[in-house]
Amino acid sequence: MVDGRRYTATLPTEAGAHLWEIVTQAAAVGFRRAASVTFGAYAAGWFAGFIDDAPDRARFETELEHRLVPVFGELPLLEVLEADRNELYGQVMGRCGGWG
Amino acid sequence: MGGGDDGATRECLHRVLEDAVGDLRAEALAAVAQIRHPRPDHPGCVNRHVKGTVQETVREVASVQDLRDSVAADVAAERLGRSPHEVRRLLRAGQVCAHRRAGRWFVPVSEVRRLQRLPLPVGRPFSPGSAWALLTMLAGDEPAELSAPRRSQLRRHLLDADSEELAARLGRRARRRFLYAHPSMLQSLAADPQVVLTGLAAAERAGAHLVATDDSELEGYVAEGYISTLYADHGLVDADEVANVVVHVVDDAVEIPVRRGVAAAPVVGLDLWESGDARACEEGQRLFVEALEAFRRR
To answer: What is the pTM of this model?
Structure first.
């Protein structure tokens, strides 16, 4: 039983089954975590990891604040991770009225 | 609506999502280690227990991931536009991290991407001894135990050769290993006097315009004779996809040029150039070319 669900598989060796169990458990943990945090919350923590004079800091702050968080901020991180990257850019483009 | 340009938006979104994947994977590994190996009752051995179980789980997961995220050597050769013979030579020389399963070599996709960014070597690669003599001269030091004719020959290479061609021929200076260290061990590993820091860990001190945003990764040179002690003292395990330590193993006789407590600028530059990361490549190339130009002015 992993994360309240039953998973079964038949593998040729005990070692293979052992590894499958670990990977399944890890996937369930990652899935649960990604579903429980919003893109906005993760991005805030991610941005807080920058040191004050990091070269990309100001640039990324602008991008997050003005373009990405307004569009994806309330969505679960999992939803953003699983979406097609081009579609995500398209949504930002639509919201901002074009790339230029 | 305010905001930056298209490229910056794409880069920012890409960076956030890639880091999210990495963070989720690390959290999942730590959580699974806890599920599979619950902490013991004695508080005194909790830290050692957690470190040991995370490493054990990483080793198990890494063995699956290494295979899943790798391509066979002949496929890697095709993607790189090099002959299978040449790729096998690189594998044997330890210039490419790879692993052997059922008699076949598998190359991690991350290594294929790294090699795709490197210039193709023109001419025979320098032996490890010659490579280090060249780098020592480039750093402004005099290499020990080098005959006058050989020194003159190497000096001519430094004066005449194109920087890309020269860098491409220095690949045999060390053998790369991807390792995992528990994050609590990284500080002591960085402070180990037998480890000469390089790459991003040494970039700022070597004069690169790059700043490591955290100390969660480490790269350094280590003499071959010290490797087993290094593994034992810092609890290192071999890992590809979950690696947070890159060790460049050199022959025991090699003396690595050091400045300000880290590898000298041309060495750090070369390692950044070979790292596969676009910005690090650019900055590493700049450091290396600057050292070459400084040598030519001397």
So the answer is: 0.55
